[in-house]
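Figure 6 in text form: structure in, sequence out.
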């Protein structure tokens, strides 16, 4: 899923609650849909109109900036951020092949 089509939702590791230190990438919540992001403290990615308007190279940069923000500022473990970000096309296409998910036959 493209960054513009996805929402990154997370709760900083220093917070309390059931989603503390967790991150998830999923679809944009449309009006009338159940808000899967409600239990998380923060959202990013396509949750913001400006992100939906980024060029392809800007979207790549933004993806890695948000990854860094989650890990460095909010204490999300890098392996958890990596697993979640595998749902973002711009992330997967710009990491080494041996870090990408293996295709199941």
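Output sequence:
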């Amino acid at each position: 899923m493209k960054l513009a089509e996805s929402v990154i939702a997370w709760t900083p590791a220093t917070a309390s609650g059931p989603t503390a230190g967790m991150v998830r990438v999923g679809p944009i919540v449309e009006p009338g849909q159940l808000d899967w992001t409600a239990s998380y403290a923060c959202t990013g990615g396509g949750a913001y109109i400006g992100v939906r308007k980024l060029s392809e190279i800007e979207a790549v940069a933004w993806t890695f900036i948000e990854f860094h923000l989650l890990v460095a500022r909010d204490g999300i473990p890098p392996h958890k951020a990596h697993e979640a970000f595998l749902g973002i096309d711009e992330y997967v296409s710009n990491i080494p092949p041996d870090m990408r998910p293996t295709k199941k036959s």
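Caption detail: Strands lie at 6-10, 23-27, 42-45.
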